Structures are given as structure tokens and as C-alpha cells.
UniProtKB/TrEMBL annotation:
Gene3D superfamilies in UniProt: 3.30.565.60, Schlafen, AAA domain, Winged helix-like DNA-binding domain superfamily/Winged helix DNA-binding domain
Ranges for domain Schlafen AlbA-2: 14-129
Species for this entry: Parageobacillus thermantarcticus
A Pfam family recorded for this sequence: HATPase_c_4
Lineage: Bacteria, Bacillati, Bacillota, Bacilli, Bacillales
Record-linked InterPro entries: RecG_C_sf, Schlafen_AlbA_2_dom, Schlafen_AlbA_2_dom_sf, WH-like_DNA-bd_sf
Low complexity bias: start-end ranges: 507-525
Region Disordered: start-end pairs: 505-532
Protein name: Predicted transcriptional regulator, contains HTH domain
């Protein structure tokens, strides 16, 4: 049987990952690592009694009933695993080709239950899932999960050594003016400054000692950047704007919180950024009675997106907040993953902001909708314009939430023309859904089952069949496993893109032809150049392919020499070196990245489906 046959029996979790274990010798020891990883990420499905070879799956003979008993015994043993979050229906025995398979569905754990870990120590037994498989969490990742367990909001913490001297008073005055203009009869308008700040949550009291101080929300919202970074050294706000889609062009406008020309706090950042996001929106004006209405659903959606980014961020996390505006998209990125499952966030109606006090402060001056309605309102605004549906994703290592809003049509003419140019007469045999899938892959660099559910009215299993069909036709290439698989256009499409700027949408990463970042300029001799590269790569890696064991320093040198030729994916390195991907990543790639000898091609998206690695010198030269 092949992958698509097996996927048809998997009816849980549209975004689930899939882990197959042969389990010929009994319950595998690493099943607990996968259980921990799925629970701490986005859930997934474990299949016991299935052997995987490439993209094909084969059921094998196992004692399914004993596997189930041993699994329940282990998961209910607190000496082995910290908590059982499964119920009886999560574990099933199913029959495939006359053989019994154990199917275990692991849901995403609630933030109150995370981290789910092996043994007694969360700092040594906590795992997560990324694009390449299970990995052991760092101390910082575990600390962030433990911090999110608390029912006490992050931003309500009182900082006793911080006071009014740490605030930018111009920001505070501006906020009070907006508040009084919006609510002229509100009783808080007559309060003294400190009492007003206490009412909105910017000041707090430690009840044990009756000591007063700024709350974290107050410091972030109105503080001076120097005071904020003294408490949160990793705090950083950035806005980037690029006016054209020419690859390599520098940002035409940039705001950072640390440049010293303004306060650097959240309140002032919001108003500096929102004007830039909305000042040139090409949206037809509307009439409200006899008057022109310049404020549209799109304007409101961008305000909502920016407020949500600031209210949901984990300010103890890495890389800060980044807001980007390009010719055809807006992107909002903040540290910290969602505190509710991704699917629940996309449906709307439920919200669990990490910083509810900051959210309340914005709502008090008319910014931000009721909790849980933000994403829903953004979707409605984009649907009204017939634009591509918003994309909300989570990334790990480090934890980030990214909302991308594209102002492109669901079926841009340039992408349709591109498909017609590549496929010729075969284009007319595509269904409307197949065209949408290929167009999305062309516009967004890849598609997933979950992404397509947000673009169509089809269910997960229907989309799986469509994707499998396009793979069989040679139009899509799968990367990854299960329902989390990312599908990219195959080499035939990339060959058409090379050297043709009209069609070259996939300009930010390595070309499928593996000709490096400058592939678009490689000219008519590109095929010969690619063949030369392949020969050099094979020559460099010959020793590793011939010898099963190499001195680590020898392997390091080979990897660095390979990645100096051009960016290489983990899969490509695995094939060149004749080594399995997971050990190669854990033993060599991760270490070389930490040592600064390798650089990821996509540093802002560590789990990018086309992530590739190159030597630091190559990275420096190319950029």
C-alpha cells in the first residue's frame, strides 16, 4: 500500500503529524518522545505496526493487543510520563491489508498541562516537533511553557522598583487625551494621574507589602525604551516597509524601538506603524448615508492584527515583534506560540491573550475587538475584497506566531498565465480546485492541507485526495509526513521560472535545480553549471558515502565544503553523505549552526519547508 491509501484511514486532526513505528519487537522506547513532542506541539498520530520507506507505508505483523496494553500501562505510570492526556477513544486497533495496526491520536495539550515530559525532570525530558522530527526542548523553551501554565497574566506582574520616572509622560498624556475624547463623560477623566494609571492596569499594588509599582503592562505600554530593556533585555520592536517586489531591494522605511528618537514603547509604536500600514490602501471609499466613509473593514482588520500582535506576544521570548509591509502583503510576527490550538484560533470566538491588560488598555481607547473575534473579522475583511485568505502559523525554535495578510486575488492572472505556460494543453484538464492549489503553491511557495481548508469549503480528506492526485501527476512534491506535509511545485515549474522575472515568484530561497541564490542570473549555460555543481558535490562527499564511520572533524569539514558550493537542504545532505537525516541534524547540523559555521538560508523561518544550510562565508558573500 502507498501513503495515500493509509492517509484515508486517518480521520483525526486536520493538521496532525504522522509518526510510523514498525514495533516488531514490542512497544518502541521512543514512542514516549513522540508522545511528548506531539502533545507539546500541535498533536499528531502515531501508528504502531507500520514500516515507512520514503513516502510508502507497509503494515507489518505485530501483537496489536499487547502493544495497546503496554502503551496504556506506560502512559498511566507517572514514573515514565508526566501526564496522560488521552482517553480510550484516542487508541484504536484498525485492520489494513489483513494486518492489525495500532493508531494513537495525541491531541495538543492545554497550556495548563504543558510541558508533557518523560521521567521526573521537565528540563531533560520535554520534546517538541518541528519540520524535521522530534527534538529535545531547550531550558528556555521549557521555562516558557511553565510560565504559560499560570492563571495569573504575564503583564499583570507588579515591578516594585519601577515607577512614574520610568514612563514617557508624553505617551501617557496622549493616551489620556484619546481616552477622554472617546469617553468625555467617563468618571476616570477626573482622577489624578496615579489613580487613573491604577484603574487602567498600568500601576499595581503588592498586597503582601502594600508596595506600589508599575505593572509589566504599564512599563511596556508607556515606558521609556531604556527602562523596558533593563527589565526585558530581549525587548525589540521593528517595522519594515518595502515599496516594490524586486528581490534584494532594501527596506524603504524602517522603525526600530532602540534608535533613541522616540520612546520605544508599545503605545507609540502602534500609532507610528498603523499610519504607515493604512496610508496608501487601495480600497474604494464607501458611502454612509450622504457622507463618504474612508474607514473600511480592511483598515479595521489591520488595526486588529496589530493590536493582537502586541497583546499576544511573549515579551520574555526571542527576536521581538516584527511588522512588515510589502507591495502585496502585510506580515505580523511576535515571540510566543498561541495559547489555544491553532484550529480553534482560526475559528474565532475564543481567545486567551498572553497580555490581557495590554489588550484592555487598547480597547479602552477604541482599538481591538472583543476577545476571540479578531481573526474572524480579519477573515471577513479579506473575503470582502476577494483576497487570498489570511494565513496564521506557529513556529518553534524559537517560538513565534506569524500572521500573513496577502492583498492578492485568489487566482492572480500572472500565476494562471504561469501555469498555462508550463503545462500547455494539460492545463485544461485541471479542475478548479487543482488550479487553486497550484496557484497557491506558486504564490506562497508551498501549500498544506490546513492552508487549503481555509481557502476552500472542502474537508481534510477531500483535500488529501486532491494533493495526492497532483503528486501523482508530477505537479507537486511532498515534504514531511502526514497531514502536516508541505507541498511545493516540482522542478518542471522552477525551470520555467529561472531567468524569467515575470514568473519568478519563488525568489527568496534555493531553486529546486539547486543552482544557488543567483540562479535567476545563470544564463543559458545553467544546465551545464548545475551538472558541474553536482559532480563537485559528489566528489567532495565521496569519502562519507564510502565509509560508515568518520571522525567528527572530517565530517564537519565535508559538510562545510559542500555547503560552501551552494545552499543544501537536510535531505540533500543526507543523500550526498549517505547518512540518515535525524542523526545528521542532531549530531552535526545543529552544532555547526550553534558554532556559527553554518547559516540557515531562512533565518526568520527556521522550519521553512525549503530550509537549506550554507557556510557562513557563503552567507556573508551573498548578502
Amino acid at each position: 500500500m502507498d501513503a495515500k491509501d493509509l492517509l484515508r484511514i486517518i480521520d483525526d486532526g486536520e493538521n496532525a503529524e504522522l509518526e510510523c513505528k514498525a514495533a516488531k519487537g514490542g512497544l518502541p522506547k521512543d514512542v514516549w518522545e513522540t508522545y511528548s513532542a506531539f502533545a507539546n506541539t500541535n498533536g499528531g498520530i502515531i501508528l504502531l505496526g507500520v514500516e515507512q520507506k520514503g513516502q510508502e507505508f507497509f503494515p507489518v505483523d505485530v501483537d496489536a493487543k499487547k502493544l495497546v496494553k503496554d502503551f496504556w500501562d506506560g502512559i498511566n505510570n507517572p514514573q515514565r510520563i508526566s501526564k496522560n492526556i488521552l482517553v480510550d477513544r484516542n487508541v484504536q486497533i484498525i485492520e489494513v491489508d489483513g494486518k492489525e495496526i495500532v493508531k494513537i491520536y495525541v491531541p495538543r495539550a492545554s497550556r495548563e498541562d504543558k510541558p508533557i515530559y518523560i521521567g521526573h525532570n521537565p528540563f531533560t525530558g520535554t520534546y517538541r516537533r518541528n519540520y524535521e522530527g522530534d527534538y529535545k526542548c531547550t531550558k528556555e523553551e521549557v521555562q516558557r511553557m511553565i510560565a504559560d501554565q499560570s492563571p495569573i497574566p504575564q503583564d499583570s506582574k507588579v515591578l516594585p522598583n519601577y515607577g512614574l520616572n520610568d514612563l514617557n509622560m508624553e505617551s501617557v498624556r496622549s493616551y489620556r487625551n484619546r481616552f477622554s475624547s472617546l469617553k468625555p463623560d467617563h468618571p476616570w477623566n477626573g482622577l489624578e494621574l496615579e489613580e487613573f494609571l491604577y484603574k487602567i492596569g498600568a500601576l499595581g499594588r503588592l498586597r503582601e507589602t502594600n508596595e506600589e509599582g508599575l505593572t509589566l503592562a504599564g512599563l511596556l505600554m508607556f515606558g521609556e525604551e531604556r527602562s523596558i530593556t533593563e527589565y526585558l533585555p530581549q525587548y525589540f520592536l521593528e517595522y519594515r516597509e518595502k515599496s516594490s517586489d524586486v528581490p534584494g531591494e532594501r527596506w524603504t522605511d524602517r522603525i526600530i524601538s532602540s534608535d533613541g528618537t522616540w520612546s520605544g514603547n508599545l503605545y507609540d509604536f502602534y500609532f507610528k506603524v498603523i499610519r504607515r500600514l493604512t496610508d496608501d490602501l487601495n480600497i474604494p471609499f464607501q458611502m454612509e448615508g450622504l457622507f463618504r466613509k474612508d474607514d473600511t473593514r480592511v483598515h479595521a482588520a489591520l488595526r486588529e492584527a496589530l493590536v493582537n500582535t502586541l497583546a499576544h506576544a511573549d515579551y520574555y521570548g526571542q527576536r521581538g515583534i516584527v511588522v512588515e509591509k510589502e507591495k502585496m502583503l502585510f506580515r505580523f510576527s511576535n515571540p510566543g506560540v498561541l495559547r489555544i490550538p491553532l484550529q480553534q484560533a482560526l475559528k474565532g470566538g475564543i481567545s486567551d491573550p498572553r497580555n490581557p491588560t495590554i489588550f484592555k488598555m487598547f480597547m479602552l481607547i477604541g482599538l481591538g475587538e472583543r476577545a476571540g473575534s479578531g481573526i474572524e473579522n480579519i477573515h471577513l475583511a479579506w473575503k470582502e475584497q476577494h483576497w487570498t485568505a489570511p494565513e496564521l502559523i506557529e513556529e518553534f525554535q524559537p517560538d513565534r506566531t506569524i500572521l500573513t495578510l496577502r492583498t492578492t486575488s485568489l487566482l492572480p492572472q500572472e500565476s494562471v498565465d504561469f501555469l498555462k505556460a508550463v503545462l500547455g494543453k494539460h492545463y485544461k484538464f485541471l479542475s478548479n480546485d487543482e488550479v487553486l492549489i497550484l496557484v497557491t503553491a506558486h504564490q506562497e511557495n508551498y501549500v498544506t492541507n490546513t492552508r487549503l481548508q481555509s481557502l476552500t469549503d472542502k474537508k481534510s480528506d477531500e483535500i488529501s485526495k486532491l494533493l495526492s492526485g497532483l503528486v501523482e501527476k508530477g505537479y507537486l512534491e511532498p515534504n514531511g509526513q502526514g497531514r502536516g506535509t508541505k507541498y511545493t511545485l516540482t522542478e518542471m515549474f522552477h525551470q520555467k521560472s529561472i531567468g524569467n522575472s515575470r514568473y519568478n515568484r519563488i525568489s527568496s530561497g534555493p531553486n529546486v535545480n539547486n543552482s544557488g541564490p543567483n540562479a535567476a542570473n545563470s544564463g543559458p549555460n545553467e544546465n551545464e553549471q548545475t551538472k558541474d555543481h553536482e559532480k563537485v558535490l559528489l566528489d567532495i562527499s565521496e569519502l562519507a558515502r564510502k565509509k560508515k564511520r568518520l571522525n567528527p572533524s572530517e565530517m564537519d569539514e565535508i559538510i562545510l565544503n559542500l555547503c560552501a558550493i551552494k545552499p543544501l537542504t537536510l535531505k540533500e545532505l543526507s543523500q550526498l553523505l549517505n547518512r540518515q537525516m535525524d542523526p545528521l541534524r542532531k549530531k552535526y547540523i545543529s552544532r555547526l549552526l550553534k558554532e556559527g559555521k553554518l547559516e540557515p538560508l531562512y533565518p526568520e523561518q527556521i522550519n521553512h519547508p525549503k530550509q537549506a544550510y550554507m557556510t557562513r562565508s557563503l552567507f556573508t558573500n551573498q548578502h
